[in-house]
Amino acid sequence: MEKELRQAVQEAARAYYRAVYGENKELGYIPASGKLLDEDDLAAMIDASLDMWLTAGRFNEQFEQDLARYLGVGFALSVNSGSSANLLAISALTSPKLKDRRLQKGDEVITVAAGFPTTVNPIIQNGLVPVFVDCEVGSYNIDISQVERALSPKTKAVFVAHTLGNMFDVEALSALCQKHKLWLIEDACDALGAQYNGKKAGTTGHIGTFSFYPAHHITMGEGGAVVTSDPLLHRVLLSYRDWGRDCWCKPGVDNSCKNRFGMQLGKLPFGYDHKYTYSHIGFNLKITDWQAALGVSQLKKLPGFLLKRRQNAEFLAEKLSDLQDYLILPRVAEKSHPSWFGFLISVKDDAPFTKQQLVEFLEQNGVGTRQLFGGNLLRQPMMTENDVALRIGQSGLLNSRYLTEKDFALLPNTEFIMNHTFWVGTFPRLGKKELEKTCALIHRFAGALK
User: Fold this and answer.
1) pLDDT tens track for 176-223
2) Domain spanning 307-375+405-448: which CATH class is it, in words?
3) Which of 162, 206, 216, 234 is the catalytic position?
4) Helix (H) or strand (E) holding 153
5) What gap in Å lies between CA 141 and CA 416, rounded to an integer?
6) Do residues 269 and 184 lie in contact, with contact meaning Cβ atoms separated by under 8 Å?
7) Phi, psi (deg, nearest 5) at residue 152
8) What is the pTM of this model?
9) 216 has catalytic annotation
10) Alpha carbon distance, N-terminus to C-terminus of the chain
11) Of 99, 245, 311, 401, which is most buried with the most CB atoms under 10 A?
12) How far apart are CA 355 and CA 348, in angstroms?
């Protein structure tokens, strides 16, 4: 009876979706990003609701297994956002369980300033020193040639993103990190499904992070993941995610280790319940099973989403190729197979118009645009209104509150990106009509100002 009732409720949910959301309504304003949901997604969330489990359960277990299998990694842990995934990744590397390889306050982490703040924030929040190197214009990824010059005896890790789904050279950066015994964290929040020489984004470094916010390649509403193939890192990540506890039992399960009352840890009495023993100063970053159910459903559609994103980016590249006297279009490495989050465009210095003028024209005519997130994060109030210790390239220690134009000039490409670069959408909801409108408006604007 329960099975039949469950099927009936799910079919009703599907019918509701078709009646309310099924019509593919024409887009007026063309957004730069967005989600793509269908009746299977709604049915999955309803299925999770009928379990009445509330917290992470069977759907979460399936999602973590499915994601690990898709990426080809040993372990995947779901978290409540991509930002939390980044916080978890850096925090885990401070664990005493890593012994002499643990990150400690004052250690340095190499990163970039052209990107989203939650790649940089966890470095600062853990008392570490961010060391900023420049990006390349065209790929908009880290300039790997600058990394070795920026090293110091305190450098312990590299933490950078694959910009908008276009991967940096993971082979070169991984080799450099191995040479200098550095941790490598790949922020793949905007790059799910991207590949470099056959390896997926987030799987070459020690830890990879992902986001499932509605703008991303798949969505849980809010949600993210950390992945690794290192069993010790997996245990540490799990601990930090789940309150810092030492126990690794799943919710609703007791005594997985068969030694629940047979340990002596810290200065606790012998036999203190392992379920309530904490080895890290952790968080609670878990998701609900509703989110996980949506993730399971969305992950099945990821190959189709990726194909559409790639086709949309190729369309934009072809239709705008005649404007390269004015515009810099995305550059892709020979071994890279992007999973385009968006299509980056830079307006050249000598163009007869500015980025700001083009962006305002597109927005006024119904085409959504986005900046490359924070532009130059060193200019953001998060830096200028706080005392953050940092280095820029080969510089000595600086205080963010007192940075000058001379300091910003140490990152010339980052400054160029802030002033000249924006992006338009490639997400699967966009079809030929929307992309043609985007290209036609750019041509119209450029032609009018020749």
Assistant:
1) 999 999 999 999 999 999 999 999 999 999 999 999 999 999 999 999
2) alpha beta
3) 216
4) none
5) 13
6) no
7) -140, 170
8) 0.96
9) yes
10) 71
11) 245
12) 9
